[in-house]
């Protein structure tokens, strides 16, 4: 479920009058997603030919102060040909509004579906799209620190406290051991740029084997570029529960990225460590939500242990099996 705020049709119709998009035809809440309220909105369109948009009301995790960074980033990437949704400007050029008491934006609709079992071709296409995104981000001047980097992991682990061991015995000790390992080995000299930082299959809209759009940039931030490759590898290369590593899918993702952007030998060599960091990041955010969301809440809690399983795979399998050989 992700409709926290119900928007009455009359209010939505008035909201749409701010834009040059025609008048309201239909609006439907979107079930996917957990952070914000999202609606699919159909209008008559500026030219009377019909148009479709996403309406997002920002609920809790997105800080309104960060929105100008996201607006500028998506404008920049869109201008450079990346398949990312544009924020729609109203008649006065404004992007951010208030609707039903929440910060709200009208966003370009991109067609495509999120896949749950990606094929190797879809993984390759996603690797290519990630490489294109990093190329396009090279001359983006905006910056946003990653609150969920190594320091953030320590804060999250402290906030989870003894709750970790209630998820599974000894998880607290495993997390502390991993934090110490990553503190000692986290790379400091790799190239940085603005990264997506959450390019899971549910944030890639596929049209067959082609990428139709990359969405949900609300975790995007300035960080190690190859860390984005590691995050994406950890999300695409495993079954969602983390039990099975799919070597073909995972290697195709890397090959796609190498074809469109390239990885330096140092970046390739760092992937095992970066992927352990990615696993710990999602383990900890999921664990924090697990501990702090009542089991009967409307939001489905994501399983932190799915990322513990990935972590163990990254810590044990040889790099060549995980990432293929750099040619
Ligand atoms: N620009 C877009 N074009 C088409 N569909 C979109 C677009 N933006 C969002 N959606 C649809 O809305 C759903 C929820 O969007 P999104 O992932 O941004 O939500 P969220 O609440 O931020 O969730 P989460 O962070 O959990 O992924 C997506 O799975 C997708 O189906
Ligand atoms: N992609 C994250 C959720 C935040 O968007 C996860 O699966 O834990």
TrEMBL record:
<dbReference type="InterPro" id="IPR005280">
    <property type="entry name" value="Homoserine_kinase_II"/>
</dbReference>
<feature type="domain" description="Aminoglycoside phosphotransferase">
    <location>
        <begin position="28"/>
        <end position="257"/>
    </location>
</feature>
<dbReference type="GO" id="GO:0005524">
    <property type="term" value="F:ATP binding"/>
</dbReference>
<dbReference type="InterPro" id="IPR011009">
    <property type="entry name" value="Kinase-like_dom_sf"/>
</dbReference>
<protein>
    <recommendedName>
        <fullName>Homoserine kinase</fullName>
        <ecNumber>2.7.1.39</ecNumber>
    </recommendedName>
</protein>
<dbReference type="InterPro" id="IPR002575">
    <property type="entry name" value="Aminoglycoside_PTrfase"/>
</dbReference>
<keyword id="KW-0791">Threonine biosynthesis</keyword>
<comment type="similarity">
    <text>Belongs to the pseudomonas-type ThrB family.</text>
</comment>
<dbReference type="GO" id="GO:0009088">
    <property type="term" value="P:threonine biosynthetic process"/>
</dbReference>
<keyword id="KW-0547">Nucleotide-binding</keyword>
<dbReference type="GO" id="GO:0004413">
    <property type="term" value="F:homoserine kinase activity"/>
</dbReference>
<dbReference type="InterPro" id="IPR050249">
    <property type="entry name" value="Pseudomonas-type_ThrB"/>
</dbReference>
<keyword id="KW-0808">Transferase</keyword>
<keyword id="KW-0418">Kinase</keyword>
<keyword id="KW-0067">ATP-binding</keyword>
<dbReference type="Pfam" id="PF01636">
    <property type="entry name" value="APH"/>
</dbReference>
<keyword id="KW-0028">Amino-acid biosynthesis</keyword>
<comment type="pathway">
    <text>Amino-acid biosynthesis; L-threonine biosynthesis; L-threonine from L-aspartate: step 4/5.</text>
</comment>
């Amino acid at each position: 479920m992700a409709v926290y705020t119900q928007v009455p049709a009359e209010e939505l119709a008035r909201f749409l009058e701010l834009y040059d998009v025609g008048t309201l035809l239909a609006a439907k809440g979107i079930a996917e997603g957990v952070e914000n309220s999202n609606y699919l909105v159909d209008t008559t369109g500026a030219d009377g030919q019909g148009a479709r948009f996403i309406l997002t009301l920002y609920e809790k995790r997105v800080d309104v102060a960060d929105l100008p960074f996201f607006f500028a980033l998506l404008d920049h990437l869109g201008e450079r040909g990346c398949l990312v949704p544009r924020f729609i400007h109203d008649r006065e050029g404004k992007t951010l509004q208030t609707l039903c008491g929440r910060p709200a934006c009208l966003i370009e609709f991109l067609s495509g579906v999120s896949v749950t079992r990606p094929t190797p071709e879809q993984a390759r296409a996603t690797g290519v799209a990630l490489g294109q995104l990093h190329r396009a981000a090279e001359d983006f001047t905006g910056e946003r620190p990653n609150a969920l980097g190594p320091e953030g992991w320590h804060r999250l682990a402290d906030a989870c406290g003894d709750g970790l061991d209630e998820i599974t015995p000894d998880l607290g000790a495993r997390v502390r051991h991993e934090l110490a390992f990553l503190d000692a080995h986290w790379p400091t000299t790799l190239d940085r740029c603005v990264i997506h930082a959450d390019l899971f299959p549910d944030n890639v809209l596929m049209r067959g084997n082609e990428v139709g759009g990359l969405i949900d940039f609300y975790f995007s931030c300035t960080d190690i570029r190859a860390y984005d490759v590691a995050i994406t590898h950890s999300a695409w290369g495993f079954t969602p529960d983390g039990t099975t590593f799919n070597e073909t899918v995972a290697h195709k993702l890397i090959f796609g990225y190498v074809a469109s952007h390239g990885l330096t030998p140092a970046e390739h060599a760092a992937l095992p460590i970066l992927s352990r960091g990615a696993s710990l990041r999602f383990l900890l955010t999921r664990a924090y939500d697990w501990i702090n969301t009542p089991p009967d809440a409307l939001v489905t809690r994501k399983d932190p242990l799915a990322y513990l399983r990935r972590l163990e795979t990254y810590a044990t399998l040889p790099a060549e099996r995980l990432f293929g050989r750099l040619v």
